[in-house]
Amino acid sequence: MITLSLIGIGTGNPKHLTREAMDAIAQQDLILIPNKGDAKDDLAGLRRAICADVLQDASSPPRIIEFDLPTRDPNITPYTARVEDWHDRIALIWRTTMHTHLEGQSGRVGFLVWGDPSLYDSTMRIAKRLPDVTLRVIAGITSIQALTAAHAIPLNDIGAPVVITTGRKIRETGWPAGADTAVVMLDGDCSFQSLPAKDLTIYWTAYAGMNNEISLCGPLGEIQDAIISTRDKARAAHGWIMDIYILRRSIGA
Known about the structure:
By secondary structure, the protein is an alpha/beta fold. The chain contains seven helices and ten strands. Strands 3-2-4-1-5 form a five-stranded parallel sheet, sandwiched between helices. Helix 2 links the parallel strand 2 (30-35) and strand 3 (63-68). The radius of gyration is 20 Å and the shape is globular. The model has no long low-confidence stretch (mean pLDDT 92).
């Protein structure tokens, strides 16, 4: 049997690794590292750097195997069907890569996951497509934790609910019903522009937890243009961007 460990590695800062994650990395026979193209190659580079740091004194380190990720087929609709097809193709690549590089078709394989494998990440869903694999999940520091730390704020107001959602849902349905605070992830379109800015405060961070972290906060109506401009410049400078934000509505608004 193959044991596949999905190892949460935090948000890009090697200091975010837990001891459990470090032990798990060292215990593998293979570490799989995806390549998403030249624009995001430094994400693969950070994974390699984390492995090099953790394994520098290992007597029998795992082999590091890189593979190319497929792209989503834009011709498949609706969105959920497009993602399901993409996940099917990724699972096939995982299976082929593992069986190609594991001796005896069994062993321990590790996959380093940004943040935590449970939070808006699809590695667990993809792994479930591999019936011949035993799944192990190692929790990691999330981008939400790094975001609240960057702004030195609690996630919620006292006794108030929080909704974790996506930019797509904000654009489609507006402000989440029943919530005073919304954490917005996976938003490449600055979807806060689609909301009435009155009585909303935004806490925005790009590259949360990394050395090049950028944070801005303030009333949405006053600061949204600065966030968009800063985001565009950062993306141009680095070739990619990961950002996340909290929107908080004034009580009684």
